[in-house]
Amino acid sequence: MDNTPVDSVRIMTPVGMLGAGWDEATIERGLALGVDVITVDGGSTDSGPYYLGSATAKTTAKAVARDLRSLLRAAARAAAPLIIGSCGTSGTDSGVDWVAGMVTEIMAEDGLDLKVARIYSEQNPADLKEHLDAGRIHPLPPLGGIRAETLESCTHIVGMMGHEPIVEALAAGAQVVLAGRATDTAVAAAYPLMKGMSAGPSWHAAKIVECGGQCTVNPRAGGVHTTIDAGGFTIEPLDPGNACTPYTVAAHMLYETVNPFEMREPAGTLDVRAATYGAVDDRTVRVEGSRFHTADQHTVKLEGARVTGYETMSFTAVRDPLILADIESWADLLRAHLRRWVSQTLGLADDEYAFDLRLYGHNAVLDDLEFDTSPPREVGVMLLVNAPDQATATAVAKLANPLMLHLPTPEMHYLPSLAFASSPAEVERGPAYEFVLNHVVDSITPTGMFRIEHGDNNHHG
Amino acid sequence: MADSTAPPVAPPSTVGDLALEVRSKNAGPFWVTMELFMRDADGYRIVADEAFLNERVIADLYRVDAGTIQVFRIPSLNVVKISFPRPVSQGSLRDRDMHAGQHHVPLAVLRVPATTPGVSRG
């Protein structure tokens, strides 16, 4: 890929998440406006630790393939590189291979011949232990330091790449870059940075486009087109009926960020305190004044997930007003009975398993923060059990079954029968995961923790 | 803009009544962030007033350590943004709100002071 400096770079971002889909007319609109690079994010931690822990995608293959086909065709027509970040939701190596496999298939079907690079971001605990021993791993708030055992306990660990490995892949000639875990912004910032655009506008524009149409007045109307130049960037929605306003663009800096004024990237910090947002017309916004402060130390953030146990879920429901009148007492009674039965029948102490009994319709979502004391009309009772193995979790849930079917209140002199939602009542959820890393590595080089492979065949082949 | 034949407008009673949107969301797996998008500068002045909304109030509302709470006041957008560490680890057995998308409600129902100077109720 030619890295000769240019005056401006035009980016098309069709959507916030590969697999979410779009109206094909929005892609045509983007191509008509002119496109130098197409970028899209393929992942997030937002849906929980399962996707990293199990290395499976949240999106379904057919939806990802549909979106890939549209973008591969667009990239070929525009002769513009296509960059996809955090492949397979969590950016594990298998997530990259999953997307690469689909790219191979689609290119064969459509007669396309684009050069593909895959960038792997999974981290080996042994390598990370060397960094840990050398004092190069630091916690980010609110977590504290880690020990080697924490690294070893993870089923998968990924490092979040910045723009540098993507630039390296593009510079080596890649037309399609399939990146493992990357910062949401690196995906869109890489190409303009390679072409010599200023870091401030490049990173700020990348943050604004990372969720596609989220920075527009109608986030469901498709993605955005942005042009980065020496003085700033200009952004408009792909759908001619949609609009960006100074308010919607500025407000997007708030979305899913702790701090609305600055954002740390591997190479430094985006600072938008001095940014100005002006309307070019009724649907286009100009942003200037964004700054980027290069850090003394380049860092790579780690994400890791481990198994906490195995879960089994059971769900019943209560409509009887006699029980609903004091549903808290009924739930307390159920908890006490269940603990006693588990102790007597399975011989498990309270700390050898755990369960959460949730009263949906009463206070399940906010729990002890719930402020509304009005009696509910009906309550869904979810029992979620976590135990060291699946059989034990299910055994606990099955011991709860008669209680969830027939437990009376202390005032009742008969056994009520409650409304189970399914048969069997118990649903085995398999392993459950938790995120355990929120740490950065002082990287020795910006690309050293990532592996770039060219060609669309899977990396072990 | 008041029509003399219209019934009197009830004074706003909660923060949510004065807002375009009150929302909450994960900011990564270990933080939650909330935003009050106020309708206008008058509403913004109420929620941006440190005497009304501050780290202590948020700490009581969400039972978190006041020292970990960050409050950002952004007059150009009429927005107050609040971030603090997620009290329950995302995806853990006791996490009932995976995206932390429903935890804005206690903030939205916070009652605004009964008499607030500078608020037009025409």
From TrEMBL, chain A:
InterPro entries: AtuA_N. It comes from the Bacteria. It holds the Pfam family AtuA. Residues 61-406 form the Acyclic terpene utilisation N-terminal domain. This is Acyclic terpene utilisation N-terminal domain-containing protein. It comes from Acrocarpospora macrocephala.
Automatic annotation (TrEMBL), chain B:
Pfam families: DUF4387. InterPro entries: DUF4387 (IPR025496). It comes from the Bacteria. Residues 16-109 form the DUF4387 domain. This is DUF4387 domain-containing protein.
